[in-house]
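Hi Y.,

Following your request, here is the sequence exactly as I used it, all 284 residues.
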Amino acid sequence: MMNNTLKAILLTSMLPLAANATQELSPWYVGGGVGINNYEPNCDQKTMKSCGTDDPYAWDLFGGYLFSDNFGVELGYRDLGRAEWVDYGNKLNDVGAKGMTLGVVGIWPFANKWSISAEAGAMNYTISNNRQWGTEYYSDSGVAPYIGAGIGYNITDNIKLQAKYRRYENLDENEYNTLEMQSNYWGLELSYRFGSPAPVVVAVAAAPLDSDNDGVEDSMDKCPDTPANHKVDAAGCTIYKEVTEQRDVGSILFDNDSDTVKQVSYERIKKLADYMAQHPAQPC
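Below is the corresponding structure, written out as tokens. Let me know if you'd prefer a different format.
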């Protein structure tokens, strides 16, 4: 009985280890990011006379909805920072772009908690140029397409950290034709997915108990205390084999024409009684 009880305890103790976190999380998530943005034209391309002091630090806030674990849509607000340069007309340009974004995101998990992502969308931007220390001001709005890629790591089921790259095209100031720009962004994002993962309990069948170790489960055993060395039937009860044994205890003598046993036969009767006591009839 102890062995079977131990099996049941061990199998029950394995249930928490067999539980997996399933995607019972909410499809909604929010997040924010910070990074560095590099406008083109820029000083590296030598398309201007000299460079001023850039403020290239970009940031964004976003919220998203996952239609599945691999595909979603994302709405956000992004500020791409500012850049300064002096053009060949000796004009100081102080330029920045920001605005709302809408895009789709594809996600491909790999290597346990890691994933890669790709995205594409459009930014409804506002671009401004505080030229000549604000004495000339140009601004315009438009829609600029962007694409991006990233690699992410799930710190928990709810929290993900991602490294992101995005490329923006056609960040133009068309009203006065003073700017035709693109930009490259590198940054980190932290997102939070709402909800809690629900554990899925994987049922592990416990070994059937056989308390008296006779090979018949307790649920079917009609004779639960059968000795372990007995052969049993399908109901767990001992199978008895009727054996005829002949023993000679001698003659039993009676007085002549009487039912009185002679004393000489007492010892023989005692032997017969002792044998029957030692070998009682077994139930069928």
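Residues 5-22 have pLDDT under 50 and may be disordered.

Thanks again,
Q.
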